Amino acid sequence: xxxxxxxxxxxxxxxxxxxxxxxxxxxxxxxxxxxxxxxxxxxxxxxxxxxxxxxxxxxxxxxxxxxxxxxxxxxxxxxxxxxxxxxxxxxxxxxxxxxxxxxxxxxxxxxxxxxxxxxxxxxxxxxxxxxxxxxxxxxxxxxxxxxxxxx
Length: 151
Hints:
Low-confidence stretches: none
Largest sheet: 8 strands, antiparallel
Radius of gyration: 19 Å
CATH superfamily of the domain at 58-147: Umud Fragment, subunit A
CATH architecture of the domain at 58-147: Ribbon
Number of helices: 1
Strand content: 35-45%
Distance between the termini: 49 Å
Strand order of the largest sheet: 1-4-5-10-6-7-8-9
CATH class of the domain at 58-147: Mainly Beta
Shape: elongated
Helix content: under 10%
């Protein structure tokens, strides 16, 4: 029997090989989205944040991918061009956002189960995918978080 080659996701950046440590200054308080408080100090000496530590729980099982969702995941907070942090060590459950291999390509959807069938949900205006009983759903990983770039 020939082994079937599964291509890498087209937007796969790659595994996280070296876990670098680079902490950057961090505000000591939450940034208000309403009116700011002018009475607080902004930075203290030990207020630092390493994004690797914050975003990556299991480096050997984590990879990055660029989102190319065509707007189908906006309702779930994922936009085209977002950086997805995908963790393969998390067991997918309903409610998780997952990266799946579907019909020869990779897609990101919200996993749901209804009447013992897997359903891949998308934003309003985009059809859900009801996984047929005779198809094994190939989940590549759970999207742990995403980074949205504003500039």
